[in-house]
Amino acid sequence: MSESVLSQFDNDVLHCFELSSAIELTLPAAKQASLNLNHGGLGLRSLHRHAPAAYISSLTTSMPSDNCSVTSKVYLLAAVNAYNAMVTRTIEEADFNSLFSDATTMTKARLQAISAPQAHAWLKVQPSPKLGLALMPDEAQVILKWWLGLPLTREGTPCPLCHHNMDAWEHHMLTCRSGGDVITRHNQLRDYIADFCHKACLSPQIEKGSGILPKDQSRPADILVPNWSLSRQAAFDMFVFGGWGNEAINVLLTISKKVATRPLNEVISNIYSRLSLTLMRQNARAILARCVSPNTCCLFLMLMF
Questions:
Q1: Residue 209 burial by CB count (10 A; 0-12/13-18/19+): exposed, middle or buried?
Q2: Spatial CA neighbour of 98 closest among 46, 56, 155
Q3: Do the Cβ atoms of 131 and 146 come closer than 8 Å?
Q4: Terminal alpha carbon distance of the chain
Q5: Residue 260: which residues within 8 A CB-CB, separation 6 or more?
Q6: Residue 210: beta bridge partners?
Q7: Nearest alpha carbon to residue 240 among 197, 170, 183
Q8: 202 with 231: CB under 8 angstroms?
Q9: What is the pTM (predicted TM-score) of this model?
Q10: Strands, sheet with 205-208, edge to edge from the N-terminal-most edge strand
Q11: What gap in Å lies between CA 26 and CA 9, rounded to an integer?
């Protein structure tokens, strides 16, 4: 298969995404979309980039092996799969590093945040409006634009809520304290983690306790767990800064282990998916509340969500 055909297929895939999402991709956004989810992409993998490795694997596994034992065939298949995975991983890392090295400081911060562990969990959620696991069409579109680094407003446009000038990359939209979006996002995440602690029989208490610091009586814990470990209580304070911190990962893993009704991997996947989707939904609503132009945000076609 010629390179021109492979490149045309890649272009057709990206064009299909543009039509279904009403999003016009720039070259950097198209490159990011072709990355896998772990590198902050959308999994629209480039056939042109990965075809050689796939061809070698296919050719090797389809070669006659009449003189090979069953054990040899198994080892050969395992070796080929390992080789293919290694080449694919190398290509993905090279493409991400190329995109990262050419980026601005603001874009590098965004790429680091969305390629952090479990940051992409919202993209793997099976949509279910009845379970609260879905985004509205306009929410899906604006958060995809943010994810791909596409501007939603002009630099210097006044914020309709606080009247400060906004940047083109949604930083102000996500951190503006007018309108209550920051507090709502914080409380939604806090309440879900507290609910998860309740399912683990940890008897969580919201906004209670003597404070985060031993001598600080002024600020209660977001979530206070009276019997966290070895009869000691734990006070958790939440804030959103991009990616999952190591402390947050360890806490979520500890809570997941205490929920014995399902396998551990399933529990962990479920909590990350729900937290990630909740975060993205609240981010999208904060952005939409500050989109001052009626033409800024178009509807996302319902075939995607």
A1: buried
A2: 46
A3: no
A4: 34
A5: none
A6: none
A7: 183
A8: no
A9: 0.81
A10: 205-208, 221-229, 232-236
A11: 18
- List the pLDDT tens digit at each of the 305 positions of the chain: 578 888 899 999 999 999 999 999 999 999 999 999 999 999 998 888 888 877 777 776 666 655 555 556 666 667 767 777 788 888 899 999 999 998 988 899 899 989 988 889 999 988 888 888 889 999 999 999 999 999 888 888 999 999 999 988 788 999 899 989 999 999 998 898 898 888 888 888 888 765 555 556 566 788 888 878 777 788 888 877 666 777 788 888 888 887 766 677 778 888 888 889 999 999 999 999 987 543 444 444 433 33
DSSP state of 228: E
Nearest CA among 32, 54, 198, 210 for reference residue 111:
32
User: Dihedral angle at the C-alpha atoms of 183, 184, 190, 193, nearest 10 degrees?
Assistant: -160
DSSP 8-state symbol, 157: P
**For residue 239, what are the contacts with CB-CB under 8 A and spacing of at least 6?**
186
Rg (CA), the chain: 23
Residue type at position 90? T
